């Protein structure tokens, strides 16, 4: 997109640079005067020789206005011809490289300080060897100037408004061989880079841009010359009241825009050589309503799980996300463009379906370091001021395939409603998260967390949660494929927990109340039980308590989990909570450091009765 805009802006700059070639017009005009000076001199000489003053006056009255009129028309014609030739010269290049620009009609309206061109085609020079190029057709380009004549005379032409109507672009780029690729290769995107474009537009002082009904398609040219369709988008862009502040000493002041209207139709993008592709039905931004929206967004892998994990070569989360809608209210475009501040009253995501899949048959990547949320907020280039974030009516499905398992285990969390208030990266205040969802139950699970962004806080995350009753049968979809464990009987009565987590260790307490527990150990990939598995199952049922109910003899499990730096914060939270499950079911304290384990074992009421 930037490559295409570069060519269009080059054409615009040609119009604007006309004032640099005023000498050309004046030279042609002087030639015109010389040609007709002889005629005037002859007529005047004849009049003076005949001493006919009336004839002299009549000749002057008739000839001078005619000469001025034709001189003016001649100058206009020469200017228009020069403008056309200059555009072609810039587009094609002095050595015949670049692009050929043709149009059916080209007009300059001096009285209206406007020019337009219609029926435009832009074609690359076939002899020019480039890695990327554009084919384009444009119905109409209209450029309105502020006082074109005076701008030419003073050498300071200002563009009032630039309009491009129905551009249709096909962008092609060649696939590079692996040995030719490097980390600095640019990534193509159908979204224009307004900062780069703004620096170019600032040179011509443009105050309004309208790009109407643009259709944009991108194609990757394979080594066998086949074209792979990489992206498609339809867009409309309207910017008015543009003021530039591009002083390098004031990097935060980029651009002021009085009015923004930006909408995008059906769009898809397949990033070649990458893992994911995305598509959406529509995107709309308007500062008139101070809002934006996106509908029917889908992010998904570009390949099957087998190909995906082979390409990565390490354990990772393969994700797919579908979203019914995202709506932002109270959006301040100038805060974003001028001060790099994302300012929103409310951001609402509705109907999200999230799938996370991890294959543990691959080695863990221990070289990465996953930043925790409070650290991650400190590294964002933009300041965020969001009063309210809401995720409504959503579903999360987690799949995990353990080593040597044929099928992944699955856990689904439904009807997720997440509310986060007061996300402000400039203020070191707690960010409160309130989550309600359904986990194997008709009643809501409720989790409340506080994220502390202050560096002085002893814990970056604190919180508590409550999970209502459900049957342990629901766990079999995850435990059978991954662990070879089947719950034959068991009812969860209630689960309560509280946690406190710093950068290294998660602690807390778990009350896991259940009854009628009976386990069966079988193979991961079948439903049959051999003798060894039967014996192991018997031992497991003998060691495990078949119940843990509230009351005097209830087992309260301490939580303790040391963070794994190359794992995500979700992994950290979940494993901190699960660290107490062993104590609740078996009565041991293996999760605790040795000294703390002894102290808990000495508390007799925690032992089997």
From TrEMBL:
Q: Which keywords does this chain's UniProt record carry?
A: Membrane, Transmembrane, Transmembrane helix
- The record lists the membrane-crossing segments as 55-72
Q: What is this protein called?
A: DUF748 domain-containing protein
Task: Please give the organism.
Answer: Flammeovirga pacifica
Taxonomic lineage of this organism? Bacteria, Pseudomonadati, Bacteroidota, Cytophagia, Cytophagales
């Amino acid at each position: 997109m930037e490559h295409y805009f570069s060519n269009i802006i080059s054409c615009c700059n040609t119009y604007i640079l006309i004032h640099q070639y005023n000498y050309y017009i004046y030279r042609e005009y002087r030639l015109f005067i010389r040609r007709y000076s002889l005629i005037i001199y002859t007529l005047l000489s004849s009049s003076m020789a005949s001493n006919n003053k009336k004839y002299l006056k009549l000749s002057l009255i008739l000839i001078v206005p005619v000469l001025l009129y034709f001189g003016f028309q001649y100058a206009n014609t020469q200017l228009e011809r020069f403008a056309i030739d200059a555009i072609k010269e810039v587009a094609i290049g002095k050595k015949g490289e670049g692009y050929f620009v043709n149009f059916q009609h080209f007009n300059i309206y001096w009285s209206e300080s406007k020019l337009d061109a219609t029926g435009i085609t832009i074609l690359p020079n076939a002899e020019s060897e480039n890695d990327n190029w554009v084919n384009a057709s444009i119905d109409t380009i209209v450029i309105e100037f502020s006082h074109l004549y005076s701008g030419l005379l003073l050498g300071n032409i200002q563009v009032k408004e630039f309009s491009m109507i129905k551009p249709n672009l096909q962008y092609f780029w060649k696939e590079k061989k692996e040995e030719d690729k490097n980390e600095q290769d640019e990534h193509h995107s159908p979204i224009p880079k307004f900062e780069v474009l703004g620096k170019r537009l600032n040179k011509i002082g443009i105050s309004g841009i309208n790009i109407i009904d643009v259709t944009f398609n991108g194609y990757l040219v394979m080594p066998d010359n086949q074209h792979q369709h990489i992206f498609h988008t339809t867009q409309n862009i309207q910017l008015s009241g543009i003021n530039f502040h591009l002083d390098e000493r004031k990097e935060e002041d980029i651009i002021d825009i009085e009015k923004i209207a930006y909408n995008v139709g059906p769009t898809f993008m397949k990033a070649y050589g990458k893992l994911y592709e995305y598509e959406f039905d529509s995107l709309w931004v308007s500062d008139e309503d101070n809002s934006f929206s996106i509908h029917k967004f889908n992010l998904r892998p570009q390949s099957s799980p087998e190909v995906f994990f082979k390409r990565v070569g390490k354990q990772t989360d393969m994700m797919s996300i579908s979203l019914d809608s995202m709506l932002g209210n109270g959006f301040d475009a100038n805060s974003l463009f001028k001060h790099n501040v994302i300012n929103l009253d409310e951001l609402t995501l509705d109907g999200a379906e999230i799938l996370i899949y991890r294959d543990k048959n691959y080695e863990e990547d221990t070289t990465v370091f996953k930043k925790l949320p409070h650290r991650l907020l400190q590294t964002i280039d933009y300041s965020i001021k969001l009063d309210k974030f809401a995720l409504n009516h959503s579903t999360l499905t987690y799949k995990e395939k353990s080593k040597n398992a044929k099928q992944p285990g699955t856990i689904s969390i439904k009807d997720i409603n997440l509310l986060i208030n007061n996300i402000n990266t400039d203020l070191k205040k707690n960010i409160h998260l309130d989550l309600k969802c359904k986990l194997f139950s008709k009643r809501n699970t409720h989790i409340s967390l506080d994220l502390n962004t202050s560096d002085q806080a002893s814990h970056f995350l604190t919180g508590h949660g409550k999970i209502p009753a459900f049957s342990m049968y629901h766990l079999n979809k995850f435990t059978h494929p991954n662990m070879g464990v089947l719950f034959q009987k068991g009812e969860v009565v209630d689960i309560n927990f509280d946690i406190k987590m710093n950068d290294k260790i998660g602690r807390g307490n778990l009350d896991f109340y259940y009854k009628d527990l009976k386990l069966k150990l079988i193979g991961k990939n079948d439903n049959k039980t051999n003798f060894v598995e039967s014996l192991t199952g018997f031992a497991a049922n003998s060691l495990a308590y078949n119940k843990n109910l509230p009351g005097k003899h209830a087992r309260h499990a301490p939580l303790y989990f040391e963070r794994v730096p190359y794992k995500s914060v979700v992994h950290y939270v979940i494993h901190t909570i699960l660290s107490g499950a062993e104590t609740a079911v078996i009565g041991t304290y293996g999760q605790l450091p040795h000294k703390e384990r002894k102290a808990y074992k000495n508390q007799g009421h925690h032992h089997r009765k």
